[in-house]
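re: that chain from earlier
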Amino acid sequence: MSDFNFFQVSDEDRARAAAHAKRCAAAATRVPDIPAETALRPLRQVAVIGAGTMGGGIAMALANIGVPVTLIDASAQGLDKGLAKIRDNYATSVKRGKLDAATMTERLALITGSLEMAAVAPADLVIEAVFEDLGLKQDIFRQLDTLARPGAILATNTSGLDIDQIAAVTKRPQDVVGAHFFSPAHVMKLLEVVRAAKTAPDVIATLMDLGRRMGKTSVLARIYPGFIGNALFRQYNREAHFLVEDGALPHEVDAALTRFGYAMGIFAVHDMAGNDVGWQTRKAQMATRAKDRRWNDLILKLCDMGRFGQKSGRGWYRYESGDRTPRRDPEIERFIVEESARMGITRRPMDETEILKRCLYGMVNEGARLLEQGIALRPGDIDITYLTGYGFPAHQGGPMYLADRIGLAQVLADIRRLHAEHGAWWQPAPLLEKLAAEGRCFADLAVSQTTEPTL
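^ sequence. v structure.
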């Protein structure tokens, strides 16, 4: 079984990948059990809770399509900062010639700030966009249950929490839904609409349509840790860090990923976003995590060393003042080698193909699990999520499409090898084993989906 060449993509391959993406985007709008003629709930007025980067971006995305928004924050400082950021974002667009001054004025007039939760009262849709803390979100939804008008849609922008637990604190779980925007929300073209156990069909239809109106691709997901996008991203992220422990250096992993087609490698992305994102949460989780598998804590140790990334001038790379170019750092490379020795790992060279297999095949394996459990409706929904929200190279078509190109028997053989070498994280997904045994591919699942005209 010869190795697949991840870097050889012909013009014909690119054209096929583009056609696949177009089909995926169109198919994602269809939800088999929700008829296309389902009446939508009106969205004449929306409230967004939380004036941070995400909440401000969502408010802009709504104002951009002419929907009046009330932006609510708990502190005057937070609200003022959020509204100032919105003004700056629009002013930058005007400066770059992407927006005229009159349109900026119109859109700003649609966004009103408030410090009172009671300001949600007239809203047809409330979108909660505070940080990822289940208790905090539940507290907000208890208040919304009292303050929001009957029939208002109550959406949470969580990126992976259990929405059923959020809906359970209300007396109207049929109105509760996940609306996972991607940051910056006024720019990114993906909206994960997450269906909870009791979410009403017209709520799903309304959110899917809202994404379309915003110029986004709306993808439906069920509740699962990380939903579709972050569930796969965890596999990609984890293996990249294990590769560094096992013998690769950050620049080698990033070089393979950029040669494959990513705009940036994973370690450069960490440094740009800030290695301390989720730092304390992850440290708190260490005590309760499963003991039957390997975990990676290198990024936490970088944070303990003050290596937060670009903002601190050093992370996985070092940065010159006023320059965001990642440069190799002998200090961190020495630290990585010492950490491997401390963990009893014998480092070995990693070629580009092995790097890509470990980063990408974990995503494919997780995607198969999502399909088997009905978290994602179709393989193409996973692909379009990755193409529009996670920077997956367009010419590679998405993780599930790529696996079909390689051949599921070959992908499974490698996953079995990785399972034997690395243990629990690489347990092959039963659906992947079934399809490979039958000589089928993920695309065959899409063909078996209903073709009736639905949402």
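The chain has a mean pLDDT of 94.
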